[in-house]
Target: Undecaprenyl-diphosphatase
Amino acid sequence: MILIELIKGIILGIVEGLTEFAPVSSTGHMILIDDMWLKSTQFLGSESAFTFKIVIQLGSVFAGAWVFRERYFEMLHIGKYRGEPIDGIGQKPKRLNLLHIIVGMIPAGILGLLFDDVIEKYLFSVPTVMVGLFVGAIYMIIADVYSKRVAHPKTVDQINYFQAFVIGLSQAIAMWPGFSRSGSTISTGVLMKMNHKSASDFTFIMAVPVMLAASGLSLFKNFEYIQLDHFGFYLLGFITAFIVGLIAIKTFLFLISKIKLIPFAIYRIILVIIIAILYFGFGIGQGISGQ
Model:
């Protein structure tokens, strides 16, 4: 039994690490696994399983923080500036700064505090995830089609505060499970005339403090459910999510300029079809809800 739960913990860590920063919705995938697999096997017990998912999300958050550590150090004036001067007197070019990140975090931060409990209560279900996955996929396709009309897309260091706010506002839409934080913000960044790589960079840089705050708040609210005898599972899931997250982020940032968003949108649509067949066609949803 312990070996089986360890394997489940590793699988959850892998899923979290692969999907947290990809535009496919990690929350959506975790809800699907929870509803269509874990609830039927009573993994760790419901409360402890929820805190486990928070812990492994933190693993992915720390992976993102590590990948962009030099950017954070620079914005906090800890690291040495690495850009090249733009003229003979050593003037520095415009750079992404901490205020861009704060402006982008404001919409999701406010709405998250106001509606977090409501969202967890009413929207964390397989049908709502399916809606988020499908609608988000359409939005990503629209962004990709539009991007072909932009002659000179902007880099992440050319972003202005209005663009940062609008991208942050789209991050709030991703509070709907399945829509995907990165899917919505990257798509919005592309629609705001950024290239895919720059939109992804800004999305990930902004996401780390948002996710850290959200995960920290959830962990604080559910601290009583943390069980010390499950510490090994938490640690294993955290490390797995961190390692897989590192690989996934670097791979995604390498590929995004080449493949754009449509392949991820197609995956989401195919996933919705498969879920619909399994969940409704074979009565999996009814079986779970009847337990």
